[in-house]
Specification:
By secondary structure, the chain is mainly beta. Helices cover 9% and strands 32% of the residues. It has 4 helices and 25 strands. It is globular, with a radius of gyration of 26 Å.
Length: 382
């Protein structure tokens, strides 16, 4: 009995030849130029993922916010994935079109980078090969590449802008990724644009202005309100006079208070946009490590630093707190006197805050400085 050997070849081609329609469900395809292996998955997935490139999140989000993107409200997260892309209704043909296909079509026709090299619908699942394994887990020479190179980098990169100037409340953006800190309340009612600071009725201050948020059984006329209506603004004339404190009031704004803007404001209020580095769902993971290398400059002096941000997040375990530490080392820019001084080291600092359901890693740096940072992220749950 003779034995016949049969060679089975996979579908193959270059990385930019793989489209959402190339692979059938469970069919494998090999990218000969990047040594990546893919398996086709169901076409009902409503996500588009991107390979990292320099300032990828900002570049892509700027397109999603532009008039060139006809699907409103899309956000790319810090994993470089656009999720929950809705079905798009074509006003000319009156047909329903895949939102994923529509987004890719718009990007192919408007953006200034090769979308076929960087974007992929979650319809082709990448298999971990020796090549991609080394990039993800054991790479000894991680690289950060510009988006026009066509090569897949193994580092995320961002430019962290200089400290923002003060903004009028007329110039705020309704954007869940942007938070603001109140610098001057002025005559602005910040509760109209997303701010709220509930004050116990026994702790109100005579002479300060408050807004009724909830009535309960409280008679607010006893402490200065002209009526008992939600939304009424009044100057407190007394404290401790109400017998029922189930009602709620909020200040109109507080210097140092933070909020996510729901619209532009009116009045003379002034804010400063908060600087966010990374943001993740607080309920998904308990631990995050960010290995980074950065260069900070004000065009006169450069600081170089390497470090690791360690974040412990207690929310998935029912502990309502999170903490960040930054272990780092850097090149000392000594002025030759041998004495370590503050202005001879980088001044960027990282912190973590919980805002709604998001855990955000934020940064501050001195005015006039900006920072370029390359990093990798590891997350897991206990």
């Amino acid at each position: 009995m003779s034995t016949e050997n049969v060679k089975i070849l996979l579908r193959r081609g270059e990385r930019d030849e793989i489209t959402p329609a190339t692979l059938e469900v469970s069919e494998m395809g090999f990218a000969t130029d990047t040594n990546q292996l893919y398996i086709g998955i169901k076409k009902s997935v409503d996500e588009v993922a991107f390979d990292p490139f320099a300032n990828a999140q900002q570049v892509i989000q700027s397109f999603l916010d532009s008039d060139d993107c006809e699907i409103d409200g899309l956000i790319i997260n810090d994993d470089l994935v656009v999720r929950e892309i809705p079905i798009w209704f074509d006003p000319e043909t009156l047909e329903e079109i895949s939102g994923v296909d529509k987004l890719l079509f718009d990007m192919q026709n408007t953006v200034n980078f090769d979308i076929s090299q960087w974007a992929r619908p979650r319809r082709n699942l990448e298999v971990i090969t020796e090549n991609s394994f080394s990039q993800l887990f054991a790479d000894q020479h991680l690289s950060s590449l510009g988006h026009m190179s066509g090569l897949r980098p193994s580092l995320f990169t961002k430019s962290l802008k200089a400290a923002d100037e003060e903004l009028s409340v007329y110039n705020l953006l309704d954007d869940p990724r942007r938070t603001y800190t109140i610098v001057d309340v002025g005559d602005t009612d910040f509760t109209l644009i997303g701010y709220e600071n509930i004050v116990e009725l026994d702790n109100i201050i005579i002479g300060n202005n408050y807004k009724i948020i909830e009535i309960g059984d409280t008679d607010f006329t006893l402490i200065g309100a002209p009526d008992n209506e939600v939304g009424t603004i009044f100057e407190a004339t007394a404290v401790g006079e109400v017998t029922d404190t189930s009602g709620k009031v909020s200040t109109l704004g507080d210097i140092g208070g933070t909020f996510t803007a729901t619209s532009n404001g009116i009045g003379s209020g002034i804010v400063r946009e908060n600087n966010n580095f990374l943001s993740y769902d607080r309920n998904i993971f308990s631990t995050i490590f960010v290995d980074y290398s950065l260069m900070q400059t004000d065009e006169n002096i450069k600081f170089v630093r390497v470090g690791q941000l360690k974040v412990i997040n207690g929310y998935p375990m029912g502990v309502t707190a999170a903490k960040l530490t930054d272990d780092n080392t850097e090149v000392w820019q000594d002025d030759s006197n041998g004495i370590a001084e503050v202005d001879e080291f980088s001044n960027i600092e990282f912190s973590t805050e919980i805002e709604g359901n998001s855990l955000k890693i934020k940064y501050t740096q001195d005015p006039g400085f900006y920072t370029n940072i390359s990093y990798t992220v590891k997350r897991w749950s206990m």
